[in-house]
Write a structure and sequence with these properties.
The structure is a single chain. Helix 6 packs antiparallel against helix 8 (191-202) and helix 13 runs antiparallel to helix 14. The chain is of the alpha/beta class. It folds into two domains: 9-290, Rossmann fold (3-Layer(aba) Sandwich), CATH 3.40.50; 296-359, no CATH class. Helix 4 (104-114) links the parallel strand 4 and strand 5 (115-126). The protein is 39% helix and 13% strand.
């Protein structure tokens, strides 16, 4: 069944907030914040100030630079608490930001440091299955821990290479099209280009990329895994899969009080994972097409392997080594004396003689 949601994007992300009595913060809003003053008492933080952002996107037709919000603080080498000393917020919004974050564990902890207990962390997250990340594997718990222990505040060379080398000509329009496009989609960049970008980052350049990629199931599994490790200071309020015609998952978390037992927060994640549904009852693993991108990729890989196997079996070397393979199969049946094994050994001896004759120079 195609995931058709009964909620609007606004309801999924902002439902339950009282804008008149709360103070909020949005991370990386650029030109499309979810809320603006005076609609809400909200501040903005980004990796650069407004002037730098306008200069960066001056030639990007997709970003009207006059709409870029005024940035209250630049979050880079400083922690978020250092950006807003002594301040705490009732909610923090990050729309299509978490995938750009080099150290997700540290990022979530820094947000928790400026959220009041019970405050909301509101995340809009792309599902890689419906984006140009479709060819990439999901980020693992080990990936998150590795980046966190390294204290990454810039995309690592490995993250940059993986992202750049696998950017595909694929979008949510392709994913939800009635007839899927040819598979697999082409890649935009060569491995050599991806390596050059990784090298540039090593030399000091900040190369923006999707450091992490998620699916509906994987993001819940990762957060549940962090809870088990007591590296996560939130509980689940609601989660929505990407609906038809979109690539965006919606996740709302509640900041736990300091010292709360992480075990108490796990059942909410486990219930969704075990039932295989989101908070609305829509399936986590629903594919937008009859055959999912993952299955199409797997099918394409199998077809390539089958072709390679056929070519190998047609080769001269395959025919020449046929007797050796018969001997190996025969030796593997040496132990045991069941009637089936005896008959099989007899059959293999016959095959060996036939193959030996057919491949001999005089045969």
């Amino acid at each position: 069944m195609r995931p058709i949601s009964g909620y609007t994007r606004h309801e999924k992300l902002l439902g339950g907030l009282n804008f008149g009595t709360t103070a909020g913060l949005e991370i990386g809003a650029l030109n499309s914040p979810l809320l603006r003053p005076p609609q809400a008492n909200i501040r903005f933080v980004d990796h650069a100030d407004q002037a730098a952002l306008r200069a960066k996107y001056a030639n990007d037709p997709n970003v009207p630079i006059d709409d870029i919000v005024s940035v209250d603080a630049v979050w880079g080498n400083r922690t978020l608490a250092e950006c807003f000393p002594g301040e705490h917020f009732d909610y923090v919004i990050a729309s299509h930001v978490i995938e750009h974050v080099p150290d997700v564990i540290g990022w979530l902890a820094e947000i928790a440091a400026v959220l009041r207990p019970g405050g909301r962390l509101i995340l809009a997250i792309p599902d890689r299955r419906y984006t140009f990340d479709v060819l990439r594997r999901e980020t693992t718990l080990a990936d998150l821990i590795n980046s966190h222990f390294r204290g990454a505040r810039r995309p690592t060379p490995g993250q940059i290479f993986d992202s750049m080398a696998n950017v595909a000509a694929y979008s949510f329009e392709d994913a939800w099209a009635p007839s899927p496009p040819p598979w697999p989609p082409s890649r935009f960049a060569t491995p050599a280009y991806a390596l050059s970008q990784a090298e540039n980052s090593r030399d000091g350049a900040y190369i923006d990329c999707h450091c992490s990629v998620f699916t509906a199931r994987s993001v819940l599994q990762l957060l549940d895994g962090l809870l088990e490790l007591k590296m996560f200071l939130y509980r689940l309020e609601r989660f929505h899969v990407a609906p038809v015609g979109s690539n965006e998952m919606s996740l709302v978390l509640l900041r736990e009080p300091d010292g709360a037992d992480a075990v108490d927060a796990r059942p909410a994640f486990r219930r969704l994972l075990e039932a295989g549904v989101d908070s609305e009852g829509l399936k986590l693993d629903t594919s937008p097409v009859t055959t999912s991108p993952d299955q199409l990729l797997e099918d394409a890989s199998i077809a390539q392997l089958q072709q390679a196997l056929s070519e190998m079996q047609a080769s001269t070397s395959w025919r020449i080594t046929a007797p050796m393979r018969c001997v190996i199969r025969f030796l593997r049946l040496e132990e045991g004396s069941s009637l089936l094994k005896k008959r099989t050994k007899k059959l293999l001896l016959t095959m060996f003689r036939q193959e030996n004759v057919s491949t001999s120079p005089n045969g």
